[in-house]
Amino acid sequence: MSMTQKPAWKALAQHTGEIKRTHLSELMLDAKRCASMVASHDGVVLDYSRQIATPKTIKLLLALAKQVGLQNSLKAMAAAKKINTTEDRAVLHIALRADKKQRIMLDGEDTVAQVHQVLKQIKAFSERIRSGAWKGATGKKLTDVVAIGIGGSYLGPEFVYEALRTDPAAAKAAKGRRLRFLANVDPIDVTRALDGLDPATTLVVVISKTFTTAETTLNAKTVRQWLVKKLGADAVAKHMVAVSTNLKDVAAFGIDLKNVFGFWDWVGGRYSVCSAVGVVPLALQYGFEQIEQFLAGARSMDQHLLTAPLEKNLPVIMGLLGVWNATFQGHATRALLPYCQALLKLAPHIQQVDMESNGKRVSIDGKVLPYETGEINFGEPGTNGQHSFYQLVHQGRVVPSDFIGFKYSQQAQSLKGEPVSNHDELMANFFAQPDALAFGKTEEQCRAEGIAEKLIPHKVFAGNRPSNVLLLETLNAYSTGQLLALYEHRTIVQGFIWGINSFDQWGVELGKVLAKQVRTQLSASRTKKAKVAGFNPATTAMLKRYLA
Ligand code: F6P
Fold first, then answer.
1. Using 50, 70 and 90 to split pLDDT, how confident is the model at 55?
2. Residues 6+ apart with CB under 8 A from 282
3. Quick check: 162 and 154 in contact, CB under 8 A?
4. Would the CB of 238 count as within 6 Å of ligand 1?
5. Does residue 209 line the site of ligand 1, with CB under 6 A?
6. Distance (Å, whole) CA 86 – CA 82
């Protein structure tokens, strides 16, 4: 039975008419409803009462999850079934943070044992680098790290790096060390990443699952040249290591295979931050203990996903509401709004996790879908976002939003004479914005405030704009892991409900192929004065301009 034929799907489609007649400002006055729309797990509280949803909506969404067999899909994933059918792969990023005692068997191998073997290797390696036991070519300690990688081999590690940079415990552990990222195949990014670094004290970690990604390969060669120029060719073994599944190409590049940290085809790029992809650079920067905390936080959310009943399950609720907003309410975008500067890279990371996973046109069995999947993700930390795009969110388009806040700041600050602490000032905004979106402001309210008649239409807020409010204790390694897993799982839940494959990414291939053709042309034109040929008229004209 196709998805749209499921009874709950049909009922939800019908229910949208009903829900259009409600307004959040009324729904929010029902204390019983509000109390029923809160769920929590291990210090993470989700208030979803500001969703345009009634208890009936939630009931129907949960029915849809059951009719779609969501729990069976989650179980199949956790049991290492090859649910990524277009690549014939299991999807086991939860094994990356599984407890040592757990067993997850795949093709006769225990994946958890494999994971802990690599973690042990990373622990020993990172301790040698951090203590200075491992010395560079000139005998100096390697205090700086440049992590070269793109997409899933960059965004997750940078998100976690930023999240922990101002956490007191992590910052203490990182004292005297620097971590830089180099992702874009843009010489400007190379300059920025290497600015102020000395090859003699720098370790380069090349991170690429395939080790064939054009951007990463060229950047790795460029940085190798930077190292070799100052330290000589023999320095490569001491200054370059890799994280990859492709040992053959790593060896061909000249990196000593003893210094390669492996992972497996059952780790999707965008789900790989808990593998060596993230653990190597992050353990080098913050020490292995911090990263163990990060993995423990993710594990806590994994267990919650797999064991909590659907109606109390945070990623399930968030995923179902995502489908409700995107498919049934027709909202193409959604915003991630952390009220915490350290989460400035959350939105860029989740952009990849979510959009590369769920931006699909066909069902898992290859049928063109009668509905759109995926959401356009964007976001900025509050309050910066308030002074940027919130105008549109309040009075323009409806953008379902996630507000993420913390009881305690990583950096407490209070000024004498100020009515509240700096963190309370931030959080005042955090609590105000979801209500402003939900309740809005009517003409009558404007009039009662004495606003001039001609300005009233401009000052009305229609309200009825949905949001989630997530409140956590504080941002540290553990809660960063929880947040990461929460958002990974939310995406996966949506993918299962939509009936798509959230684990492949064929949509990135076409552009790569065309770039290859352009690269060949550029090379031939530059070196042999070859004429531009084989492109459409528009591209031909622009290439001629570029080459002239
Ligand atoms: O953007 C496409 C993609 O394949 C992502 O899925 C992946 O995270 C990224 O490229 C980097 O790939 P690799 O780790 O193999 O260099």
1. very high
2. 157, 160, 161, 164, 179, 290, 291, 294
3. no
4. no
5. yes
6. 10
Check pocket membership of 420 for ligand 1, CB cut-off 6 A: no
Sequential DSSP letters for 477-532: HHHHHHHHHHHHHHHHHHHHHHT--TT--GGGHHHHHHHHHHHHHHHHHHHH-PPP
Chain-centre distance for alpha carbon 177? 25
Cβ neighbours of residue 450 under 8 Å, at least 6 residues apart?
Answer: none
Confirm or reject: Cβ of 152 under 6 Å from ligand 1.
Answer: yes
148 forms beta bridges with 182, 206
Count of alpha carbons within 13 angstroms of residue 505, beta-carbon side: 17
Count Cβ atoms within 10 A of the Cβ of residue 452 and give its class: 0-12 exposed, 13-18 middle, 19 or more buried.
exposed
345 and 485 in contact (C-beta within 8 Å)?
no
At 137, give phi and psi (nearest 5°). Answer: -60, -30
| The residue to which tokens 């993230």 are assigned | 278
pTM value?
Answer: 0.97
- Residue 504 pLDDT > 80: yes
In angstroms, the CA 405 to CA 427 distance is: 7
Three-class SS of 413-431: CCCCCCCCCHHHHHHHHHH
Average pLDDT of the residues in 336-355: 98
Average pLDDT over every residue of 144-161: 98
The hierarchical CATH code for the domain 97-293 is 3.40.50.10490
Look at domain 28-67+308-434+463-498 and name its CATH class: alpha beta
Instruction: With a cut of 90, say whether residue 237 has pLDDT above it.
Output: yes
Residues forming a β-bridge with 368: 362
- Tell whether omega for the bond before 383 is within 30 degrees of 0, i.e. cis: yes
Pairing of β 44-47 and β 38-41: antiparallel
Q: Hunting for tokens 């291939």 — which residue is that?
A: 509
Q: Which residue has the tokens 């593998």?
A: 275
Q: Can you give the pLDDT at residue 145?
A: 98
Q: Would you say 180 and 146 are in contact if contact means Cβ atoms under 8 Å apart?
A: yes
Q: Which two tokens stand for residue 547?
A: 């080459």
Q: Tally helices (H) and strands (E) across the chain.
A: 23, 13
Looking from the CA of residue 268, the nearest atom of ligand 1 is: 6
Going from the Cα of 210 to the center of ligand 1, the distance in angstroms, rounded, reads 8
- What number is the average pLDDT over the span 202-226? 97
What's the gap in Å between 107 CA and the centre of ligand 1? Answer: 25
pLDDT at residue 385, rounded to an integer: 97
Q: Is 465 helix (H, G, I), strand (E, B) or coil?
A: coil
The letter for the amino acid at 400 is: P
Q: Which residues lie below 8 Å from residue 266, measured CB to CB, with a gap of 6+? A: 80, 89, 90, 91, 92, 95, 106, 111
**Mean pLDDT (whole number) for 83-102:** 98
When the pLDDT of each residue in the chain is averaged and rounded to a whole number, the result is: 97
